[in-house]
Amino acid sequence: MPTNQIPTRRQILTGAALLPLALTAGKAAGQTAKGQPLLGKPDLPDPMDARTGWAIVGLGSFGVGQVIPAFADAKKSRLAAFVSGNAEKATMLGQRYDVPNIYDYNNFDNIADNPDISCVYIVLPVGLHAEYTIRALRAGKHVLCEKPMASSPAECEAMIAAAKAADKQLGVAYRVYFEPANIEAQRRIAAGEIGTIRHVQCDHGFDANPQAWPPHKWRLEKLLGGGGSMYDIGIYGLNTSLMMMPNDRPVAASAVYVYPRDDPRFAEVEGGIDWRVTMESGANISGSSSYCYSPYVSRQRYFGDKASIEMMPATTYYDNDLIIEGAGPRRHIGTAPAIQQFAAQVDGFSEAARNGQPHRTPGEMGLRDMRIIAALYESADKGGVPVKL
Question: Which UniProt keywords are present, listed alphabetically (predicted)?
Answer without folding.
Answer: Oxidoreductase
